[in-house]
Amino acid sequence: MNPRRSRGVRLAAALLTASTALSPIFWAPPAAAQLIVKDPTNYVQNVLQAARSLEQINNQISSLQNEATMLINQARNLASLPYSSIQQLQQSVQRTQQLLQQAQRIAYDVQNIDQAFQTTYGNASMSASDQQLVAGARERWQNTVGGLQDAMRVQAGVVGNIDTNRSEMSSLIGRSQGATGALQATQAGNQLLALQAQQLADLTAVVAANGRAQSLSEAERAAAAEQGREQRRRFLTPGSGYQAGNARMFPNSGN
Q: Residue 54: in which H helix or E strand, if any?
């Protein structure tokens, strides 16, 4: 064999062997074994977007909760007070008013009062008889006694209302403190004001009744003074003075 040819064959064989050994370095890997390449910037943006979406959902939940609380508070504020003392207060006022309307003789009437002061409490008539003067004095006394009795009856009625007012006041204060909304608190406050108005009405009735009794007493005293002057005038008038009559200590014994 030619030496040159044999060296060429060996060199070709060596190159073939080297290329075979180095071939895995240059081969492309299969598709299933390829590595997944991730973009960090895109990942961060996705996380931020998800966080923003979660925050929006939480804000919507909080808004719904606030709206529900607001509706509940509105319902409480519009709830009516399940208690009313108006009927009791009206009954107390009616009782006091009935006592005033039951005033004896001279009632709480302007025309009635004017007529009485023109007749019963007017100037003593010079032409009236002694019996008429005595009858007038007795009528005035009865008016005064009736006025005093009426005043005491009104006072007794007002005192009777105190226990009812105390009970209603306790109930209203308890309802006011336990009110669940603005409307209930306002209604309880209004009823407390109505209770105060009823108490003022009772006080007015007592003052009126006492004033009436005092006025009748003063009017009786003034009329009595006027009648006394008329009787004194008659006593001192010549020809109509005192004339002694026949008086006996013991009745006739028949002797």
A: helix 40-78
